[in-house]
Design goal:
Serine Threonine Protein Phosphatase 5, Tetratricopeptide repeat; 2 domains
Amino acid sequence: MLRILPLLLFFLIAFNSAAQQTATELFRSGNEKFKAGRYNDAIQLYDQVLKLEPKHAPTLTNRGVSKDRLRDYRGAIEDFTKAIAADAKYTEAYLSRGLSRYNLRDYKASLQDFNKGIELKPKDARAYNNRGLVRYALKDYRNAITDYSKAIELDKEYAEAYYNRSAPRYNIGEKANACLDWTKAKNLGLKEAEPYLKKYCK
């Protein structure tokens, strides 16, 4: 029922000068393959970047995201962990690792990653939405609602956060509020909300 916001890909970040031009071109090409959904091709290009710049946190993270899309969650986590070792303040690595751990149902470790990501980047609506997913999985419904609400506070048009907030609201007996959230999500273009409106909000 819950909807995960797709991981975002972050673009060009500076490389060391010696291999900068080649690494930059390979990194851009990898990003283009990723955007086209050609994740294996993207991984091959990121591999080449990492031969030149083995501790480049954005490349390690993007390769991890590509692996996550291929459902190689453990391989993805390994890349995100390497990215964090290379740059302990690289927020995207924590947030991405949190999602891969969530996909493996390692909810406690996932929660730790989202907590750290939010500590580093406290105004990232996506981070609160995704931490809400973890809290919902742990049946911590009220804190899940708090996280989704924070995501909405940061981004009033965040359809997935409205949609995701409806489930814990419904579970704690707030049917009217759940229906309001499904309605808002639908009005923002999220078709997944329609069946719930028909079933629970007559």
